[in-house]
Amino acid sequence: MAAYILRRLALMAPTFLGIILINFVVIQFAPGGPVDQAIAQLEGYGDAAIERVTRGGSEIVQRAESSDSRYRGAQGLDPAYIAELEKRFGFDRPVHERFFKMVGDYLSFDFGESYFRDERVVDLVLE
């Protein structure tokens, strides 16, 4: 019985590592990450634009003319500002550095800030 318990405990580490790896891949490589959300809000495509429209106010939401270009700099924002956003959120670093930073943050119970409530995620979980 002790061997079974030890084997199960030993398998916990690779299981957690696999879960964290899947979490990392989904968060880092799915479209609509934090940089894309910040760009959308700055260009008026985010929640603030939706609120202006649904509130029934007289404000006009102007969108940049759509083009076939997927280059973010062609969407109306300064490429230097986009680079600053990527640096702020850590997307300027290599993938393996971002992964090890995330694992270290998770081990120290630092889950970052909520994008919706401007509070630490740990405080929201404990609430």
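(the above was protein one; protein two follows)
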Amino acid sequence: MMGLEPLKNSLSSFVHLLGFCLETLSAFCVLLGLITTLKIALASFRRRQFFPFIELRLNFGSWLALALEFQLGADIVFTTITPSFVALGKLGAIAVIRTFLNYFLNKELEMEMKFQNELQNKSALDQL
């Protein structure tokens, strides 16, 4: 089995690199979400319009959901080289928590979008 050692080391290095890339993309998504959300808030403030709270939540929440997807991908990748059941259990628990966070975040975003659509429909009817 000595011949497989270099292959295992290469796989481990590749998995760590891929996991790092996925985690970096996740952090980048949070940063982009923050920047775009701040742009929306500042534009609204400059125009002296109402504060677009729902739009801000939808925008930032979408970026957070994407970031969680990348984090979950990194967790899955890291399970391929997990050396023990304890480490695998920890990664599994983290993955479950992130999956639940993502699920409930998406549910909340769906409700916010539905609420925003209802408000737009109501204002369109009021203008008639």
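Reviewer note on protein two: DSSP finds three helices and no strands in the chain.
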